[in-house]
Amino acid sequence: MLILGIESATPVASVALADERGLVGEITLNIGLTHSEQLLPMLDDLLQQTRHPLSDVACIGISSGPGSFTGLRIGMATAKGLAQSRHMPVLAIPTLEAMAWQQSGMDGLISTMQNARRNQIYGALYRWKTPEGALFPVLEELLPAQAAAPEDWALRLREYEEPVALMGDGAMVYAPIWREKLGSQARILPSYLGLARGSFVALAARQRYMAGEKQDFYQIKPLYIRGI
Questions:
Q1: DSSP secondary-structure letter at 1?
Q2: Per-domain residue ranges for the chain?
Q3: Cross-sheet strand order for the sheet of 13-19
């Protein structure tokens, strides 16, 4: 079982393969080229380096947003084009959810954030929990992806009255606000831990695929969240 993960919702272009054991391979670039120039050559290189033909892939996970409108369209079109010709399922993975997978199993709250510009962030809030009798933790969504002013988001986080890990470029850009509004409650993670990456799209898709989740190929669309 091989899962392909594609990330193009942010300036980062990333493709990865995961199987039942974990990550098989990943190529991630953050060099500012358009995703239309990068994704397919990166995917070809990844398949060659891992010695897997595309026919080995059982499912494609695609980062579905929020994020760059152009990047989301390119990624979604790429995933659907590859899948349709080979009759593979596609699973849309919210970008902020995939980012939270970088802190898999971490105790406490995780707020993933993207800089939405115009003094706003796209934010979501998660917590890893291990259900009774389960072997592995699952990601619980506490606040769904939404656009918000940083000050308003900080107030929502403060209501939980517990430490929260802040990650993503929104965490870095508005760091002074988090420190002012949240104080010691805020734990701002380094920028390299906040990059959207194909490996975590693939791992999130793998969990859903193994749980039997199915999504209507023709209904999968980018998650566009417009600011106020």
A1: -
A2: 2-95+196-210, 96-193
A3: 22-29, 13-19, 2-7, 57-63, 90-93
Contact 112, 100 (CB under 8 A): yes
Q: Fold for domain 96-193?
A: Nucleotidyltransferase; domain 5 (3.30.420)
Beta bridge partners, 123, equal 113, 146
Domain 2-95+196-210 identical in fold to domain 96-193: yes
Do residues 62 and 50 make contact, with C-beta atoms less than 8 angstroms apart? no
* CATH architecture under which domain 2-95+196-210 falls: 2-Layer Sandwich (3.30)
Give the β-pairing of 164-167 and 186-188.
parallel
pLDDT digits (tens, 9 = 90+) for 72-104: 999 999 999 999 989 999 999 999 999 999 999
Instruction: State pLDDT tens for residues 181-212.
Output: 999 999 999 999 999 999 999 999 999 999 99
| Dist. CA 135–CA 208, nearest whole Å | 15
d(CA 103, CA 123): 16
